[in-house]
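Worked Example 4.2. Consider the chain below.
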Amino acid sequence: MTPSAEILAFRPKAAQRVETVAYRRSWDATKARASRRRGQLAERQAATVAKRLALAHHIAAQIEAGVYDDQADVARQHGLTRARLTQLMNLLLLAPDIQEEILALEVPAGRQPLSERALRRLTESLLWTDQRVMWRALRAGR
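Applying the procedure from the previous section yields the following structure tokens:
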């Protein structure tokens, strides 16, 4: 029981036992919720796009090691469509320095700096110089 909770005790007429009811005032609940949210924002975690890029690297390594025959085999084994797996694997076409920046992204819980969909536009160009220009524009636009 928190110190801000109040306790009421009453004796019902029908049953001769003491009932204890604890309730929390609404402003206490709001204060507690705000405190929890501040704690969540203080914790930093890897961005979702970083996790997906790491997954793409992991899958590529497993294909190279012979664990899977090809991307279609990975898709079958993990219940993904081949199109979705191709979207993930296309992240590997990004310039190495952009991949490093993405893998280093850490964000507060509940916030994402950029979406995978935005990164897909970068993979449309196979020229790393074009990707870098688009990456700088994407980062500046946040």
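The longest helix spans residues 48-65. Strands lie at 6-10, 19-23, 44-46, 106-108. Compare this with Example 4.1 before moving on.
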